[in-house]
Amino acid sequence: MTDLLALKTAARAAAFARRKGAHAPHAATAGYLSTVLAGYRGVPLAGYCNMRTEIDPTPAMEEAAAHGPVGVPVIIGAGQPLKFRAWTPDCTMIPGEFGAPIPQSGAWITPEVVIVPLVAFDRGGGRLGYGGGFYDRTLEQLRAAKPTFAIGFAYAAQEASDLPLEPTDQPLDLIITEAGIIEP
């Protein structure tokens, strides 16, 4: 397990460096994400509030919110799946865990489409996150209850070919970058 942990740590460091290089003001848009989400109008959706150098899904989330419920993740506690609080473009936001903004109040929603922020991805639907396992636990729980579509959203530069994956890592159903749509 120590070797896998070292591999994941090294893969994250390399991916963060690639993401930082790709992240620049106005370098990316959510155009492809908006196009895909248009096919899911009215379906409960979970997005995220970007932090640091993550690609920003907000424009696509704003469009989706005009047609159905949109939520953002709230960390309940270490080792727990995420919950999703209803979000609208004008809702009051407060700092959440790790500095990501969350709605101050609102109903909890159960998404059927989840936009997943990434540190790295591969063309087979593999993903590398921050290492807390939040999205893996969450997707596993959601998928056990009903089909849940996981869309990885990242810069094209975050693609890797040799991700250290584990059996508990939940796969992505689709990957969207500023450069296009990748179907695993």
Q: Please, could you describe this protein's structure?
A:
With 184 residues, the protein is α/β, with parallel strands linked by helices. It has a single domain (2-182), classed as Rossmann fold, CATH 3.40.50. The chain has four helices and twelve strands. The strands form three sheets. An eight-stranded mixed beta sheet has the order 6-3-2-1-7-10-11-12. Helix 2 (31-37) runs parallel beside helix 3 (58-65).
Topology:
Blueprint: H1 2-22, H2 31-37, E1 45-46, H3 58-65, E2 70-74, E3 83-86, E4 93-95, E5 101-103, E6 108-109, E7 113-117, E8 120-121, E9 127-128, H4 134-145, E10 149-153, E11 174-177, E12 180-182
Parallel strand pairs: 1-2, 1-7, 7-10, 10-11
Antiparallel strand pairs: 2-3, 3-6, 4-5, 8-9, 11-12
Overall radius of gyration: 15 Å
Please state roughly what percent of the residues sit in beta strands, choosing from under 5%, 5-15%, 15-25%, 25-35%, 35-45% or over 45%.
Answer: 15-25%
Distance between the amino and carboxyl termini: 27 Å
CATH architecture annotation name: 3-Layer(aba) Sandwich
> What is the SS-derived class?
alpha/beta
Counted by DSSP, the helix tally is 4
CATH class: Alpha Beta
CATH superfamily: NagB/RpiA/CoA transferase-like
The domain count comes to 1
The number of strands is 12
- CATH topology (level 3) name: Rossmann fold
General form = globular
What's the average pLDDT? 92
Elements, N to C (H/E)? HHEHEEEEEEEEHEEE
Strand order of the largest sheet: 6-3-2-1-7-10-11-12
The helix fraction, in percent, is 25-40%
Largest sheet: 8 strands, mixed
**What ranges have pLDDT less than 50 throughout 5 or more consecutive residues?**
none
